[in-house]
Amino acid sequence: MPLDTSIKKVLVIGSGPIVIGQAAEFDYAGAQACRVFKEAGVNVVLCNSNPATIMTDQAMADEIYLEPLTAETLKRVIRKEQPDSLLAGLGGQTGLTLAMELSKEGFLQEQNVRLLGTDAAAISRAEDRELFKAAMLEINQPVIASGIAETVEEALEAAAKTGYPVIVRPAFTLGGAGGGAARDESELRVIAQTGLDASPITQVLIERAIFGWKEIEFETMRDAAGNVIAVCSMENLDPVGVHTGDSIVVAPTQTLADREFQMLRSASLDIITHLGIVGGCNVQLALNPDSFEYAVIEVNPRVSRSSALASKATGYPIAKITAKIALGYTLDEIKNDITGKTCACFEPTLDYVVVKMPKWPFDKFADASRSLGTQMKATGEVMAIAPSFEMALMKAVRGAEIGMDSLNRKNTEGAPIWERLRRVDDRRLFTIFEAMKSGVSVEEIFSITRIDRWFLWKLQGLADFEQALEGEGLTAERYAEGKRLGYPDETLLRLSGADRLPEEARKAVYKMVDTCGAEFDAETPYFYSSFDRFCESRAFPRSGRPVILVLGSGPIRIGQGIEFD
Questions:
Q1: What is the pLDDT of residues 62-90, one digit of tens each?
Q2: In this structure, are residues 10 and 30 in contact, taking their beta carbons and an 8 Å threshold?
Q3: Rounded CA gap, 522 and 515, in Å?
Q4: Is 323 helix (H, G, I), strand (E, B) or coil?
Q5: Rounded to the nearest 5°, which phi and psi values hold at 131?
Q6: Which fold does the domain 215-392+509-565 belong to in CATH?
Q7: Which of 245, 421, 499, 549 is deepest in the core (most CB within 10 A)?
Q8: CATH 3.40.50.20 domain extents, the chain
């Protein structure tokens, strides 16, 4: 379908101030949308209360309102500007909730303003816990045993049916806000009330806890004609129970057999088709590691934090393509900017591993609880790309700006290793590595953490390498192995006690992210470093113009938000 020429003027809702659970990813998405609409000749009206964003630059929109993101503000702007359309799915949960409020009141219909992309009915079926559960049952998609509650007493009744422990998931909230896990009635009373207060519709889902299951995500895309693709699969290192924003995430999935992968991929595409999603959508699923049993956790009918990760991991611009679909285009009509040849209906192919590591604010709040659960606590994250999981993980640790260049963290707490292994906190990765180097087996760690053995054996390989390095020194063979695993030269020298590197010291080369596993030549790729004999960036054609290096700002943290982006 060609461009919908009836779209003349669109109101874009921004994401407001940076909050935990909603950071720069929605400025990134909204800025892409504004560019797409401007290029299409559509008049763009933007409302966002955060001045430190790219989307509030004058070039991004025709009219910009730096106003509070409330229903009353949007009503005033709509009456004044009289847009014919509203884009809500690229402004995070804030934009989605406000758009739904205006739709349910009948204000959008009264002003002849239509929602672009996913319509209000589909959003409600995805976000409202009761409607979502009913929708999944309609297509025989398994959901976790649960009950809907609008009062604390109803929550207690639902928990009595499902059995404890339970997870409380408020409807229409961001980053798991207001939710948590309850082991008994007294804990549930507190968490249920918090969740009800946090939910804009005063509704929570009381769900049977399935701690220990794998958490898998699929970032998907669907157009109005019904074409669907899975853009990227992602796997949480932590099992279900830790918010995906607080977990180390790996793309593509590493521990799934092909039958498991295809089963979950098909489920994700069936779900977004049944819900009627138009644009990007994140589907979260839980998989029993001991069988083919799985359950649908939730669906985000909008561009999310995971969408930003999937976009950069694959080179597939999810927000931009979502905006083009909102304008009426279908996936086969949208060109892939990186290859210049393929279209957006080609599923990306990853010939590398991506690791996302969260950035937590605990250095600013020394007395805050470091425990992680269903409420997100991270303020940002870093992403690392490499040919192997080990190299990507090591790169992510260095990128997180926590003063570490390996997994060796000095224990300053004094608590025994067995006690610390049972904690689910931001130091979990380093505690596991410490335990491995002290002789604790993979099976013992698995029985405590329920982290998949594949990840644990990869960490065990790093621990074995370091112990061999410390005991036998830095030989040429061990140096080559260390570079393959992602260790910097200075770290190898420090761990081995050597005073110089082997004569054939390796240099970094750069590989391409091209969305297609080198099946087609890339016109505008981006690069990641590795250690290899062939450097793909040297083979990339140069323009002959002067080159400027721009240094970015690293992960979002307290004191440094998106103003430097």
A1: 999 999 989 999 999 999 999 999 988 77
A2: no
A3: 9
A4: helix
A5: -65, -35
A6: D-amino Acid Aminotransferase; Chain A, domain 1 (3.30.470)
A7: 245
A8: 9-116
